[in-house]
Amino acid sequence: MKTVRLADDRRIACHPSGHHTPGAVPLVLLHGFCEDSSVWDTLLPFLADTPVWRLDLPGFGGSDLPATVGMAAYAADIRAALDILGIERCVLAGHSMGGYTALAFAKIFPGALAGMSLVHSHPYPDTPERIEGRRRGIEMLQAGKKDLFVAQLFPALFAPRFAQAHPEQVESLVQQGRRQSAEGIIAALQGMIAREEHLGTLRNSAFPVQFILGDQDAIIPLEEALAAATLPTSADIRVLPGVGHLGMIEQAQQTAWMLRDFWQFCVERPA
Ligand code: MLT
Question: Which residues contact 232 (CB under 8 A, 6 or more apart)?
Fold first, then answer.
């Protein structure tokens, strides 16, 4: 792991893996809500020949809390960390909240992207019901009930058959959630409540955009995600059958190969 220090001295944890050559455009992976970079561990055996960086979002894993709340603030910190690592352009892949961050990054720093992959993510803002649920979550966390919050969060994100067959994988993700700080989780909830719509960001994207979706994702209705996937000029749309919100765990090899193929397409196409 490499820890970079931002201009205000906050730390961002960056994990390199795979095969890096000087000047290569890497695949940068951003985890989702209540996770850290280790959520991608299952993919690494299948990405041994790909230059990969996994970054912990501010307030998660080994990264310090964000200075301000919001997806744009996460995106600015990720851009600053990539600058320090000497990475000018990348293919940026984000899982769910990591995808919300990638969309904010795409709006602010489009020239830094050779491609963007949204892994179980979408460009829509929160519905009123979702905002209400997140506010209840903040109250729980402020009341010191982090373990309960996390225990209720993850099991429903897997496709039911997978969760039944692999309780140890569900438990491992719950443990990962428990390692995150309540402050970091609260900042993420506030940031997701405040996030903007990114249909225009997709429509205006000058780089290819990949959508990896699960047809049993309880968070992201497939039809809405597919509607958004028609917006970019160049889109790679993949639907994992029988998969919920966590393709990197439920179908690790397929997800890794989809990401690797997309990365290769993006870096080999003429700029
Ligand atoms: C995530 O996995 O990052 C969350 O499900 C995103 C969300 O709550 O909208």
Answer: 202, 203, 205, 208, 209
Q: Could you tell me the two tokens for 242?
A: 């029988």
Handedness of CA 178, 179, 181, 185 (dihedral sign): negative
The pLDDT tens digits along the chain (271 residues) read 999 999 999 999 999 999 999 999 999 999 999 999 999 999 999 999 999 999 999 999 999 999 999 999 999 999 999 999 999 999 999 999 999 999 999 999 999 999 999 999 999 999 999 999 999 999 999 999 999 999 999 999 999 999 999 999 999 999 999 999 999 999 999 999 999 999 999 999 999 999 999 999 999 999 999 999 999 999 999 999 999 999 999 999 999 999 999 999 999 998 7
Q: Which atom of ligand 1 is nearest to the CA of 31?
A: 3
CATH number of 2-124+196-268: 3.40.50.1820
Grouping H, G, I as helix, E, B as strand and the rest as coil, residue 128 is helix
Contact 116, 102 (CB under 8 A): yes
Alpha-carbon gap, residue 93 to 59, rounded angstroms = 19
Cα 40 to Cα 52: distance, rounded to the nearest angstrom? 11
What ranges do the domains of the chain cover? 2-124+196-268
Give the pairing type, strands 27-30 and 11-17: unpaired
Q: Please work out whether the CB of residue 121 comes within 6 Å of at least one atom of ligand 1.
A: no
Pocket test for ligand 1, best of 29, 96, 120, 134 (most atoms within 8 A of CB): 96
SS3 label, residue 106: helix
Distance 203 CA to ligand 1 centre (A): 23
Q: Does this model's pTM top 0.85?
A: yes
**CB neighbours (10 Å) of residue 91?**
27
Measured from the CB, is residue 96 less than 6 Å from ligand 1?
yes
